[in-house]
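User: quick one, fold this
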Amino acid sequence: MKATLFAATLAVSLSLFSCSALQKYMIKQSDNPPLTVKPDVARLLIIRTSSSGESMNYLDGKAIGCTIGKSYFITDAVPGVHYLMGKAENLAVMRLSLEAGKIYVIQQTLRVGFWSDRTSFEILTPKELKHEILQEKCRFVVFDAQKAYPDLSEKDFQESKEDFEKEVKEDPSKYKSTLGYKGLSQLD
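Assistant:
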């Protein structure tokens, strides 16, 4: 009983510590930007709809921003195949085929893990996105370029990518909804 209580207390403490550790990399904005597409790039919108926890996110191993509680950020990417990764206690991976002139709306979820939160990705519909921004008041944040957050090591990026591709081969149905995600031309 004491060991279980100690482990739970430690997990909560580590989770709270990690929450404050990554927030400094994001700048809260006073206004939400228009959620529009750009003709020459793909736009990736990553949102956290719950209020606790956070995770650093990477595109092809490069740090792109952190989802702190009830927030979202947008990053632009060149069209093509990319790997979105979220790092918490685990390293979640999502492969996306990004097209110019489209926006891709990804919800990042966090759930309690052993030592800290565990993360995963899922697709969010435009209706769900609008609800989270307008009704649940998710706020827009921007990655602070002045505070360089380390990218994933090439080794970690490659291993995670290879593990993901192996899982897709073993059970493609598990990733059907995300691998087939075509993005949106508009959000209305």
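User: anything notable?
Assistant: Confidence is low (pLDDT under 50) at residues 3-19.
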